[in-house]
Amino acid sequence: MSRMYVKKRILKVCMVFSFLWFVWFFVYRDGLGDVADNNNIPKFQIEMEQSNKLGVNKLENHKQSKNLKQGPLQPQPLNLNMDNKARAAANTLPQQPREDAKHANPNQNADAKAEEIVPGIENIEKVDEEKQEEIPNGNVNINVGEDRKAMNKPKDIPTGPGELGEGVHIDVKSLTPEEKGRYDRGWKENAFNEYVSDMISLDRSIEDSRDPECKTMVYSDNLPDASVIVTFHNEAWSVLLRSVHSIINRTPPELLKEVILVDDFSDRPHLHAPLEEYMSRYEKVKIVRASKREGLIRTRLLGYDVANGTVLVFLDSHIECAEGWIQPLLDPIARDKTTSVTPVIGVIDFTTFRFKLAKAKDVQVGGFDWALTFNWHVIPESERARRNFKDYLVARSPTMAGGLFAISREYFTHLGTYDEGMNIWGAENLEISFRIWMCGGTLVTAPCSHVGHIFRKRSPYTWPGKNILLRNNLRLAEVWLDDFKTYYYSRISKQQMNETNYGDVSERKDLRKRLNCKSFAWFLKNVFPEMYVPGNSLASGEIRNKAKPVCLDGLDKIEADNHLKTYPCHQLGGNQFWLYMNDNSFRRDVVCFDYHTLKKEIQLMSCHGMHGNQEWEYREVST
């Protein structure tokens, strides 16, 4: 055998071994490595990766109810996308009077109609079948939104309807008859655009447009935990769930003791078993139910009775919390438990659901008028100076709107909670505002705390009882206004007073004495010196036309087109109540009759006390 032949055989053997080694190293070995690696991956992580491919986060807590089939670990902070559990719960949405409601998600025909139905919203992604699954009985489609790990990272922000707090505009003409029926029904039942709400993810992103100082604010190291109490009555499904999601998503877990949902005797089916089932996965969510219609005041007290947090945060059920919302509420209370704090209330447009945050320099504080109506005021110059003109610092506020505020649970108890003699809602916000100030506390607004609220033009609910607001106002006036109550009484008719039984207020008067509260004169002098006090007027009441039963009527708005009108006299005061003052001006609170020389009409403008176009001479004319 020649030497050349041996060399060739050796070379062939080497080539075969090289090929086998190559196959083992790059194919078989890598395959074993993958198997080994997967064996070391916890089961919940594999499930997470698989579910993320579907765009649905299925991570849930191990300690779920027995009815839940899935539920490995749930990360903190929670990012609650509406998952299969939500779809199952929503399946039991009421069939009557919604018998023609085939789909609750307006994105049903998103592929064909996205640009027609939602003009002005760019880059709306098509809805994946995995993300929008049909409920077994075909009644409802739910928009689960985009799956994302970190809400505040721009690269993770989705591009669906309503993201970054943008509004969604509906081309109503492009809706099918079925969709138009749901669109109209949502407006009728809720007085806001439920159709649009159902399009928006429950975890939608909100642009963090807080002032720079708010983002770098340093808070106390010992912030107390909070019980967030949310009362609701016949609330829309997606709006209520989005409220809860925003609370949990944007509250550090260590600061959130619990979320207490208090049902004020709702009769919509989706707020019973489906809501119980949906919320059962979240250990921090409790549901308390009233046995009869109680109204906001007593329903909030049901939540207070079961609350365990150091601080109580009262919220409405149609809100969204912005990033960093709770720390500015808790910090002043951590420093002084007699301080109560309100957030800046942003506007969620009731048509488009656009979320708009106010800048710190534009923040206003609460006031009131002598009809005991809450109103907003610019921050007085004296208060701005007290804060060294730093707009991001808390501002003292004479009153609060009442829907959203935080208060120490201990101090709330000490103050006597709410007046349980008041019914439903109305006047409780002014009553507790006066009580906080007059009984040793402080009320402030935190410009760095933002909570959006859906403001409606009408209430979709019915109320049991008669003259509810008048009754509550009379209780407030009798207990807290002292002699200044005469200014309120001048605004209402004697007939109204005689027909309204405001109940026994002796217990509330005893509470005021027990707390050693100051006088209302002290409040006006030290807390709200900007408040106009009428003093002695030459005349008061309605201004009636002698020829026919019409009276001068006008709103308390400082607007260019706000001019006096004539309406049939109703003898209820209100917009037909006027004062004729010693300086010959006609006024109500801060607005005066002002003659516009060009338009030759009487407008309502801010009172300036300079006579001129606001001076009127009254003459007796014999007929």
Automatic annotation (TrEMBL):
Keywords: Disulfide bond, Glycosyltransferase, Golgi apparatus, Lectin, Manganese, Membrane, Metal-binding, Signal-anchor, Transferase, Transmembrane, Transmembrane helix. Belongs to the glycosyltransferase 2 family. GalNAc-T subfamily. It is a single-pass type II membrane protein. Its EC number is 2.4.1.-. Residues 93-118 are annotated as: Disordered. This is Polypeptide N-acetylgalactosaminyltransferase. Residues 227-412 form the Glycosyltransferase 2-like domain. The keyword ATP-binding does not apply. The keyword Zinc-finger does not apply. It is an enzyme of class 2 (transferase). It is found in: Golgi apparatus membrane. One of its GO terms (biological process) is protein O-linked glycosylation. Its cofactor is Mn(2+). InterPro entries: GalNAc-T, Glyco_trans_2-like, Nucleotide-diphossugar_trans, Ricin_B-like_lectins, Ricin_B_lectin. Pathway: Protein modification; protein glycosylation. Residues 540-621 form the Ricin B lectin domain. GO terms for molecular function: carbohydrate binding; metal ion binding; polypeptide N-acetylgalactosaminyltransferase activity. One of its GO terms (cellular component) is Golgi membrane. Gene3D superfamilies: 2.80.10.50, Spore Coat Polysaccharide Biosynthesis Protein SpsA, Chain A.
